[in-house]
Amino acid sequence: MQDCLAPQQAEGEIAPIEALRVPRELDGSRGSNREWDVPRQIAANTDVEAVRAWLANFVGARTTFDAYRKEAERLLLWSIWEAGKPLSSLTHEDWLLYQRFLASPTPRQKWVSENGRKHPRSDNRWRPFAGPLSPASQRQASVILNSMFAWLVSAGYLAGNPLSLSRHRKLRQVPRIERYLDEDLWQQVKATIDALPRETPRERERYFRLRWLVTLCYVCGLRISEIAENNMGNFFSRRDSDGTERWWLEILGKGGKVRIVPATNELMAELGRYRRELSYPPMPVPGESTPLLLPIGGVPKAMSRGGIHDIIKSVFSMTAERIKLKGPEHAHAASKVAQASAHWLRHTAGSHMANKAVDLRHIRDNLGHASISTTSGYLHAPDDSRHADTEEKHRANW
């Protein structure tokens, strides 16, 4: 993990876990919740070492690793500098106090970054929070930290899980997804892209890259992390039982799970346009290392999640400005587009497929919402039916 290269900070300062300097009396080597009567399954002797041992399980899944590290780090820092005790001495009562802290991290200058900005972890301005956590984010933190404590108990590092006494609410019905673009707003986003200049080679490259990116997000419902971490060599074709050649995109996704997504004729046409603009052959070959998205005019290297996010946010911002010009009665629509993020395109894909009566099982498998059993890898007929269903009913329609 490159994070270990971050510079050490002075004892007593808020710092990322890889740069954290903890006083001996707070490092957990003598924590009151330590397990001393059973053999330990990890070599950790301090809380920081134990947390890093837990995080090591997720190094191969960067998005998961980042989310888990963030929550473990926040609790570890709060335990030391606010509760004044090691993580391995926290009690159920401490957990209740921490939950209230998440709703309002104070003092703000100590815990919250200025103006909610995200600074590099090696920057002295880095803070654990960008602001108070929403109820949904608080629940997510609870789920992650409960998992961490349970693992540390299983590893023989802790005697008990202080979160296990929390009252667990009955599962509620899954809420409706609201963070998506309806059909009218989706048309507005496409109009913004089609209005972009393409007189110069650089403008053409930017235009076709953007069309490709938005089509990839919408038709395949990919996460931006999946776009950043997969290559064009993951496309492959095979003939179905009727002899029709169909293209697929194999994606290594969240949690290290692999799924195959229908690469419709429309998607492959957009890919061909984008590749020709880069002077590549229109169709990729198996094993090709070209990233799914490239920097403008740059060497063939993968773009970061942040870079992809910024590209899509810029399109939404331009679209919002265009809608505002239509008059005050369009202010609500403009505001909704301005709030949208890259992940909205994934929700938009799922919502639009459902509205067009694509089989819900096919939507589930396209988006990777459920794991696929080993046996299903041999069942090509359901895959072919899913491809045909997606091809027929789900199009970006430029």
TrEMBL record:
Keywords carried by this UniProt record: Cell cycle, Cell division, Chromosome partition, Cytoplasm, DNA integration, DNA recombination, DNA-binding
PROSITE patterns in UniProt: CB (PS51900), TYR_RECOMBINASE (PS51898)
Position of the signal peptide: none
InterPro entries: CB (IPR044068), DNA_brk_join_enz (IPR011010), Integrase-like_cat_sf (IPR013762), Integrase_catalytic (IPR002104), Integrase_recombinase_N (IPR010998), Tyrosine_recombinase_XerCD (IPR050090)
Primary location recorded for the protein, binned into one broad class: cytoplasm
Occurrences of domain Tyr recombinase (ranges): 176-392
Domain Core-binding (CB) per the UniProt entry, residue ranges: 45-153
Sequence segments annotated as region (Disordered): 373-398
Biased composition (Basic and acidic residues): 381-398
Subcellular location: Cytoplasm
Protein name: Tyrosine-type recombinase/integrase
